[in-house]
């Protein structure tokens, strides 16, 4: 049985207290909400914080409300189950409820949080193993080693972003609010991520993700399609989020298309977007956009299924996501 390493836990009751505790702990500290990502990592000794700051007693993190301007405000501590079941979310932002329902299993949805899924650690076949397994191959670049076993000649880590909510939040134009020692700052969801398997977040370690602010769809449409081996539990090996606003003639006035789980960050597809603007979503246009969207996807040997098949599935799932918008 894998056991947690020795550590101490603090239970702050406010965002300011949590940030102060995390700042004092320095590199030995870690935030935790549902714990569905951090605690398994700790058991595998991928992360070994000495001070864990438990966020479940902070009321501000469980807010779920709609502002007068139509913005949906989701506290980072809102559970996936609550997001899935919330009638206002299902009515106004059904893509969020759908994407959250695609995450893991109902038991873990009861524990996992919106913030936790957005900040999910990047994954890799050579990294997500127990300590003894990783030691047997002399570890990997992401933890304790100096080589990326996916691409041994590469100077960087190629672990993949495997969040279901991340590509959706980027596609629908959400913003995230981070609280740190200097106060709060708001950035687009897209700016939260960087293309690096190790240093995959722009968030500073002591900063706390407080809430997500999602603009009203206001007539726009959004969809999410996910590829995984099993219909439940598994992380995505491909996620496709699509968003579009249409003009009075039914042509695409504005759109975003974002791929998840094919790189270390949610990948936008500007080439596909350029093909879609000003067009109706005919079969021919969708086919051309699907082919264009597949070009920046470069799957590697770091998740489930074969590389070639995963690459072949990108245009298939992009096509399905765009067809959903019709």
Summarize the entry for a quick read.
This protein has helices spanning 15-25, 38-43, 80-85, 87-92, 94-101, 106-111, 114-118, 131-136, 165-171, 270-276, 283-294, 307-325; strands at residues 8-10, 29-32, 51-54, 64-66, 72-75, 175-180, 183-188, 208-214, 221-227, 238-246, 252-260, 267-268. The chain is an alpha+beta fold and 326 residues long. The model has no long low-confidence stretch (mean pLDDT 96).
Q: Could you describe the 3D structure shown?
A:
The chain has helices at residues 15-25, 38-43, 80-85, 87-92, 94-101, 106-111, 114-118, 131-136, 165-171, 270-276, 283-294, 307-325; strands spanning 8-10, 29-32, 51-54, 64-66, 72-75, 175-180, 183-188, 208-214, 221-227, 238-246, 252-260, 267-268. With 326 residues, the protein is α+β, with helices and mostly antiparallel strands. Among the domains are: 59-119 and 160-214, Uridine Diphospho-n-acetylenolpyruvylglucosamine Reductase, domain 3 (2-Layer Sandwich); 236-325, Enolase-like, domain 1 (2-Layer Sandwich), CATH 3.30.390.50. The strands form three sheets. A five-stranded antiparallel beta sheet has the order 4-5-8-6-7. A four-stranded antiparallel beta sheet has the order 9-10-11-12, with helices on both faces. A three-stranded parallel beta sheet has the order 1-3-2, with helices on one face. Strand 2, helix 2 (38-43) and strand 3 (51-54) form a beta-alpha-beta unit. Helix 10 (270-276) packs antiparallel against helix 11. The longest helix has 19 residues, at 307-325. It is globular.
């Amino acid at each position: 049985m894998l056991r947690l390493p020795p550590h101490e836990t603090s239970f702050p009751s406010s965002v300011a207290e949590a940030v102060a505790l995390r700042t004092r702990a320095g590199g030995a500290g870690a935030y935790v909400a549902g714990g569905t990502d951090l605690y398994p990592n700790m058991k595998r000794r991928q992360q070994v914080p000495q001070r864990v700051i438990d966020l479940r007693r902070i009321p501000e993190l469980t807010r779920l409300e709609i502002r007068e301007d139509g913005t949906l405000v989701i506290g980072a501590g809102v559970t996936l189950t609550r997001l899935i079941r919330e009638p206002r979310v299902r009515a106004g932002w059904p893509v969020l409820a759908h994407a959250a329902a695609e995450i893991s299993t109902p038991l873990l949805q009861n524990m996992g949080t919106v913030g936790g899924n957005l900040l999910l650690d990047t994954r890799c076949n050579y990294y997500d193993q127990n300590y003894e397994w990783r030691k047997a191959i002399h570890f990997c670049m992401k933890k304790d080693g100096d080589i990326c076993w996916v691409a041994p000649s590469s100077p960087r880590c190629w672990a993949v972003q495997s969040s279901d909510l991340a590509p959706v939040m980027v596609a629908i134009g959400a913003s995230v609010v981070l609280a740190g020692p200097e106060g709060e700052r708001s950035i687009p969801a897209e700016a939260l991520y960087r293309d690096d398997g190790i240093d995959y977040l722009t968030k500073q370690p002591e900063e706390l993700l407080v809430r997500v602010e999602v603009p009203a769809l206001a007539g726009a449409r959004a969809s999410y399609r996910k590829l995984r081996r099993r219909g439940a539990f598994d992380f995505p090996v491909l996620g496709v989020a699509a968003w579009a606003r249409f003009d009075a003639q039914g042509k695409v006035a504005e759109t975003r298309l974002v791929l998840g789980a094919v790189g270390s960050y949610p990948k936008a597809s500007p080439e596909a977007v350029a093909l879609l603007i000003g067009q109706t979503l005919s079969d021919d246009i969708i086919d051309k956009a699907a082919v264009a969207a597949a070009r920046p996807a470069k799957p590697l040997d770091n998740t489930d299924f074969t590389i070639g098949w995963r690459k072949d599935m990108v245009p298939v799932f992009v096509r399905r996501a765009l067809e959903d918008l019709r």
